Amino acid sequence: MSAEEPLFRIVRGVPTAEELAALVGAIVVRTRPAPAAAPAPVSQWARSARPAPARPIAGPGAWRASGLPR
């Protein structure tokens, strides 16, 4: 596309300056990539309910390790 070629053109009607500004604003918003959502913070209450990965689930010594502090 050349520098003098328009990005879009109006083919019907005579829009006002405000209508053109609204159209350009809508096009700009639609073509922007969406911002990455920040992960929600996890509360201490929810974190305490999750199993610890270092704890053995089954196998030799699992019963004894289940009573040890984390």
Automatic annotation (TrEMBL):
Pfam family membership, one: ACC_epsilon
Residue ranges for the region (Disordered) are: 38-70
Protein name as it appears in the record: Acyl-CoA carboxylase epsilon subunit
Q: Which domain of life is it from?
A: Bacteria
Any one GO molecular function term: acetyl-CoA carboxylase activity
| InterPro entries the UniProt entry points to | ACC_epsilon
